[in-house]
Specification:
By secondary structure, this protein is an all-alpha fold. The protein has helices spanning 3-20, 26-54, 60-69, 83-94, 101-136, 143-174, 177-188. The protein has one domain (3-188). The radius of gyration is 21 Å and the shape is elongated.
Length: 205
């Protein structure tokens, strides 16, 4: 059987057996554990990894790129780190937009509040990840517990993404359509990974 077909068959078997709460063979039980491990770790990383990116080994530089040149102008990188770092990041993001002092103050307030909420959600995500590790290092993996943990991770990810969207919408209401258009144009001059092109002009203060 081709590898791709066999993989889909394995997944279907795992899903069917997991729904019944049992596995017909030791080999299938191992397969279930392998698929569940991959899926749960991926969800855990998604749930709190974006915010961890802002506070990761690259520090403020990675967060700055995430906020300035990522897929969205005000991405995960803007909502991580201490308030002082967030405020500096906001100022850099708004440079070249002729933003007023009032606009800068409002955006900073929104970003700092979001960062505080997301920090708590990151802690919840880490707790779920630790439970995931405990679950899959047990002598026998509990399929029902794995499914419950999967649902909790999905809910935690949804909560995080909702909070980020709320902050982005609030910021969009502070900026004018022209300022948002300038940000969108700026994104086009940045590379996909978030770093500015070498020949891209630096925004005017």
């Amino acid at each position: 059987m081709p590898i791709g077909v066999r993989t889909r068959v394995e997944q279907e078997q795992v899903m069917a057996q997991a729904q019944n709460g049992r596995f017909k063979s030791v080999a299938l039980q191992q397969t279930a554990g392998r698929w569940a491990m991959v899926g749960l770790i991926a969800m855990a990383a998604t749930a709190f990894g974006a915010a961890a990116w802002a506070d990761g080994p690259a520090g403020g530089r990675a967060a700055h790129h995430a906020g300035m040149g990522g897929a969205v102008p005000f991405g995960a990188g803007l909502f991580g780190g201490p308030p002082e770092r967030i405020e500096r990041r906001v100022d850099r993001t708004l440079d070249g937009l002729q933003a007023t002092d009032a606009q800068r103050a409002q955006v900073k307030q929104i970003a700092v509040a979001a960062a505080k909420d997301l920090q708590a959600q990151r802690a919840a995500g880490r707790e779920l990840f630790e439970r995931n590790q405990q679950l899959f290092t047990a002598p026998v993996v509990d399929a029902n517990a794995a499914e419950q943990l999967r649902q909790q991770m999905l809910a935690q990810h949804d909560q995080t993404s909702r909070r980020m969207l709320q902050a982005m919408l609030e910021i969009s209401r502070v900026l004018t359509p022209e300022q948002r258009a300038t940000l969108a144009q700026r994104m086009k001059s940045h590379r996909w990974h978030g770093g500015p092109s070498h020949d891209a002009p630096r925004p005017a203060p």
